């Protein structure tokens, strides 16, 4: 169909101009409104030309029976044009054969040959063009009453008409193929754009998932510890109960605030007057350690960086999340153990972060704190994306060690 994007134009090969723009039809041809207009115009053109040539034949006094028979053949060829979209080559061959004797079939022959040039390979169109040109040699011999010019003039006119139709068809063919190619490229560009958007959304969702895990796992583990303490010590003094309840309330409030902070990127139209809270940096690490100590953990912080605020924001945020996850894992799996946090490095040498605690022995008291089991995987990906590396596992001394190195540009 005219205007449809066909599979032949998907590859956009250098030899596209030699390909058939429309495959052989297999089934009913469905015409668009534009197709109907074109077909009707071509049909009326061929019919009017046949009637004019028949009237000219009658006026010249050519045998009426031969003229009537010629007109009947010409009108049959015109009716055959309605099948030109389904069998263009077969129709062109039939009309060319009829044109060896019928003068009124010339309009249908022009339309059929033009259709083949536009819709089929150049080799097929050239072969039919040669056949039509050869018909110019035969027609004056079979119908000499139609020719009042020298024989060579008829041959020249046959060659000129054939070349004009061929050139016109090739121009239309090239234009249609250009339109198809541009349309196909536009479709591909749209598909690639949708793919890039989908990939960006997927990457953003993965980043948000990592942030939610790093942030909420820490807060919720604190809530679980304090709630467990209240469960195991229901007879605790009122001040201790009030203190634990206050820590639970504060931790829940912080968890909600950080959850809002993480998923704030999902808002389609964030309010300018309510910007998102800044992400934590390495300068917030002492506060994280103090918070864990307040929850009952024994944490020792070894700072070997003079100014934590001097660490770049992106590097400091990644280091903060690594320590946060390390403390969360220690609280889950080795509660009661002493955790050592070591931060060292300098500009140009990189920043190293280490969280070390004794390997847990036995079953921890109380119900286990649930987890997804993907925290270390997320940290590894975070460090890799930042251009660093991460190691974790049991050391020869029996400790569990989480270590990461992140680039710190000079």
Automatic annotation (TrEMBL):
The keyword Endoplasmic reticulum does not apply. Its EC number is 2.7.13.3. It catalyses: ATP + protein L-histidine = ADP + protein N-phospho-L-histidine. The chain crosses the membrane at residues 36-58, 89-115, 122-143, 155-174. Residues 204-269 form the Signal transduction histidine kinase subgroup 3 dimerisation and phosphoacceptor domain. GO terms for molecular function: kinase activity. It is an enzyme of class 2 (transferase). Keywords: ATP-binding, Kinase, Membrane, Nucleotide-binding, Phosphoprotein, Transferase, Transmembrane, Transmembrane helix, Two-component regulatory system. It comes from the Bacteria. InterPro entries: HATPase_C_sf, Sensor_HK_TwoCompSys, Sig_transdc_His_kin_sub3_dim/P. This is histidine kinase. It comes from Phytohabitans maris.
